[in-house]
Amino acid sequence: MSKAPIVFKSTHRIRFSDLDPYDHVGTGKYATYYVDHRMQGLRDYVGWDLKSLEAAPYMVWVRRMEIDFIRPARGDQEITITSFVREFRGPDALIECAMTDAAGKSVSRCLMTVAHVDKATNRATDWPPDLMARFYEKETT
Predict the structure, then answer these.
(1) Which domain holds residue 23?
(2) Is 110 contained in some domain?
(3) What is the mean pLDDT for each group of 10 consecutive residues in the chain (141 residues)?
(4) Which of 104, 103, 84, 106 lies closest to 30 in space, CA to CA?
């Protein structure tokens, strides 16, 4: 039986500075929301704050993001972002993200590819098993 992925969850309120003249969140801000959500989740769910990541012999690097825009997010709206690691492929972690409004309706989706990079060589390397395990629920006996 495979273990369940840990689902990161965070809530945000859309700020005025994130809006375009039409009261929509600017396109590039979605990427910022998703990346900030994952970094907050690494701290809250995995225990990797910025200091521990700085001291680690590896880096995590967002290699690619594919964002689907479903409906606009607007000023002062509360959104919830959830995400989980769908799978690991060598140096890449494929992360599914979803943004919903307060009613639970989809606002956007994102597929984020995050690479594991060795700091000594500055090259992407396969995710070590002990690091991959941190993104899944512990098995109970």
Answers:
(1) 8-133
(2) yes
(3) 88 95 92 97 95 96 97 95 98 98 97 98 97 88 57
(4) 106
